[in-house]
Amino acid sequence: MQAKTSPEQGCDTAKRALARQKAVFDPLETAALLAKELPLELPVTVRVSSRAKNVVLRLRPGRGLEVVAPAGVSVKTLLAAVSNRRDWIAAAVGRLAAEGLAARPAREFVRPTRLVLTAFGREWGVSYAARELDGCRLTLRGPGEVAVTGAVEQPRAVAGVLAAFCRDRGGALLRQALGEVSRESGLGFTGLTIRAQRTRWGSCTLRGRISLNFTLAFLPWELCRLVLYHELCHTVELNHSKRFWDLLERHVPGCRALDAQLATARHHLPGWLGAVAD
């Protein structure tokens, strides 16, 4: 004869089962396990989302594979999801690599001792001093020296103030350079915005307003110059038609060869810059 289960006992049993189902795994340990299932070396992060209904895999340019896990999902399920998408991951990483956006294996943050805006031949030495501050501060100590004080052991805080300084100085230099190139070429523009874009070096609107990525200042001058002319040519041809390339070729002979270099030019960017978004 089978014993009967009361409604209260059944409710308690269901609650215990639900609690076991929602047991939280360690995201760091799980990410390390998932990385071993990948067809190539790639940074992996795991994020648990109460809104997610299924396991979602996202390749984030420059940052690797993000695995979004629904609450209560098992590590075994995550491993199966990654293993089943090995071919897709390999193909997607290949496409990103062709665009110069592939993620690199995570490395220890190294504080730079120099800031170099290669396109304009500008350079500053960097010194560091730990202080009991919330975050970091950057002070200009002379024409070629800056000092970072505060929480200098925090990569994101250090990278944040360095990036802000480079954006300010690089943006001013890019603004001046675009004006000079505009006058030389006779190609006008209606306005300029300096941005910190992840995937674009620049853009141009239908009304002739140009946006430039401040990280252009880290590139060799010939590549930076190509982007300036590229966006100015878009004020005439807002496309990548033959007429656009012919116009760009008139101003920058050999532009297609330079454009091929630009596709993989992110290796010119300093490594510390990646900590800004970490």
Automatic annotation (TrEMBL):
Pfam families in UniProt: YgjP-like
Alphabetical list of InterPro entries matching this protein: UTP_pyrophosphatase-like, YgjP-like_metallopeptidase
Domain of life: Bacteria
Signal sequence interval, chain numbering: none
Name of the molecule in the record: DUF45 domain-containing protein
Coiled-coil residues: none
Domain YgjP-like metallopeptidase positions: 53-263
